[in-house]
Amino acid sequence: MAQQKDKDDFRSQVEDRLEHLFREDSLEATDERAGLVEHPLKGLKAVMLSIDWEITDSTMDSLLNEIKNVEFIYGEDKIILTFLQLLRSIGRYVKANKGRAHPEATRLINSVYESLERVALTEGMSRPEKEKMLLKEVSKFKKLKERVMLRKAEKQQPVASEGTPPPALAPESKEIRREETPVWKEAHEEPRPEGRFSEMSPHEAFAYALEEIKDVIRAEFRALRAEIKLWRESK
Amino acid sequence: MAIINLKKKEVQAKIVYYGPGRGGKTTNLDYIYKKFRSRIQTEMVTIKTHGDRTLFFDFLPIEIGRIKGYDIRIQLYTVPGQVKYESTRRLVLRGVDGIVFVADSLSVRRKENVLSLKSLAGNLASYKKSISEIPLVFQYNKRDLLNEGIPLLPVEWLEKDLNSKLKAPSFEASALKGPNVVETMKKIIIMTIESLRKDLT
After folding, report:
1. I need a surface site. Which of A18, A48, B3, B91 has the fewest CB within 10 A?
2. What ipTM describes this predicted complex?
3. Residues B146-192: tens digit of each pLDDT
4. DSSP assignment, residue A32?
5. Which domains can be identified in chain B, with CATH numbers?
6. Which pTM was predicted?
């Protein structure tokens, strides 16, 4: 009886403490994405949110369809139309490459959308301000194109000695080519022999996990080196 | 295994958010950290890849404070969800006291949820722990996407696929927007501390 009472006391104290720590009364909601209930970008925003979670043919098709809808609404606004063209180009690239797309592509698609939303929704924003935001996104888009080309070139010529000149960039095209299938296929994606793990000592298991992490870090460095090379070339 | 220092009257429990990749484990911790940063007064540690995926784990310590004379600290961890990091997941599970299984409600992720739960059971077994005995809470995440016309698994299916034998508490949630994120965490903390309580007397 006393033990049960003690247990209930303990539980209620934990509950009270958690209630106090995590009460939601005075804190502002963190959902910064609400508030587009009747806006023309509502459909596009919903698709952007779903892309946040999952990139599939279906979500990317929805994106391309929504872009068409918004183009129809903003048919006279060249700035908005250019934003939409950017979204479409990146969307097509991501659709074609999905998980193998350059990691910057998904970031850029979000960034372009956020700028588009700001330009479309901010009352009183001047045309030069809008153009400035657009140019910023266009510049990011161009950089992404260069990185994608470079990565593709590196994949085709993976081992280059220090004396070898860097691979030539493909000439700029209006759109990123669909047949491109970069790059991120790393050796460590091959399945590991899981059965062996249970036979390993803790030290071996740790070393094994460490090796996995090293693989990923190597891949990260490869991407970084490619970006540094690009930056040096642009200087 | 929780660290219990009877002399100093300190208890440190480890809770791991487990589930398939892109399911929302890190987003759960992000939400808690961003919303309650001023109260929990600790830092979240996260190591991500170039593509914004969890590389090793995320870590968020929370000081619950003194209860029945014990200082109670909770450590929330996530595991990397991608299939290739199985050995890392196993390492993060070492010494775990409670689990939140974050299931992905997207219809296309049904198989991944089941495989991930099987991997959890296997990994716990390698530490001689049973999934049916450890404190466990299911969170069916991404329910907000239903309003956006995205096909989701009905909760009944998720329950049948994942929880029909375990009968653990479950929550429908949206880690991105917040509903039931805190409730899931409170539930697992209470269950975990209760399971450790016998060692404190």
Report:
1. B3
2. 0.82
3. 887 788 999 999 999 999 999 999 999 999 989 999 999 999 999 99
4. T
5. 10-194 (3.40.50.300)
6. 0.56
